[in-house]
Amino acid sequence: TTAEPEAPAEEEEFMDEASRIQLEKQRKADELRAQEVFMKKSTGFHKCTNCDFQYDEAKGDSYLIGGMVQPGTPFAELPSNWRCPSCRASKDSFLEVVEEIPGFEVNQGYGFGTNAMTSGQKSGLIFGGLGIFFLLFLSGYAMN
């Protein structure tokens, strides 16, 4: 009954040193991958799985013909008989649209707040900084 867990240990006895080191590195990498938990950030949108209509909590559905839900109403507070204005699907057919923030969840609070940024926000910050530097660089030629 206990022979199965001991089988990997017996296999390690017959391994050469390089294989044993590689196996240990693989175990450490697997342990780190298990610790990496992506934080999910709600966007305030809920998408219909039937017709791709997006319910925006900031807008509600009062802007649509026959819409009775006021702006600022969270999706969870919609009445249970509320239906998709486009295809008439039930409320259960909607999925929340979320953004993943990569990295270790325990590290999200460190730094200047950039650890909690989405990848799109980080790209905008990087390329925006490069654009500003480029304009500043070109403005040096205008000083002549």
TrEMBL record:
Keywords: Electron transport, Iron, Membrane, Metal-binding, Transmembrane, Transmembrane helix, Transport. GO terms for biological process: alkane catabolic process. Residues 43-97 form the Rubredoxin-like domain. Pfam families: Rubredoxin. The chain crosses the membrane at residues 125-143. One of its GO terms (molecular function) is electron transfer activity. The keyword Mitochondrion does not apply. SUPFAM superfamilies: Rubredoxin-like (SSF57802). The keyword Transport applies. This is Rubredoxin-like domain-containing protein.
